[in-house]
Write a structure and sequence with these properties.
This protein is mainly β and about 120 residues long. Helix content is about 0%, strand content about 60%. The protein has no helices and eleven strands. The strands form two sheets. Strands 2, 4, 5, 6, 9, 10 and 11 form a seven-stranded mixed β-sheet that branches. Strands 1-3-8-7 form a four-stranded antiparallel β-sheet, with no helix packed on it. It is elongated and about 50 Å long.
Length: about 120
Amino acid sequence: VALVESGGGLVQAGGSLRLSCVASGNIFSINTVRWYRQAPGEQREVVAGVISGGSTNYALSVKGRFTISRDNAKNTVYLQMNSLKPEDTAVYYCNALILQESWGPELEYWGQGTQVTVSS
């Protein structure tokens, strides 16, 4: 199983980006998917999460600006980021809990990360 993120880049403050995380390989089901971010010199922090049923949650710092969604048919999770701020600058990582067989176990996977840079 592999997770591949895309969609990062350089954007001015107030702008928008949409990140994608595509899972591929031997997948029975994708359960909880989270986006994390890590700024230079900082610890990795969770930004948003979505469970298999579609319920979502967000870090307070991004609530109302970011939207996480999933397309189960495409094994893809998105992070729509609006009203970006310089403090959103970080490497963004996709994290997923995946079942490769119906009887489990549930395994955790990480993507390689995509850089988001917001200029002031």
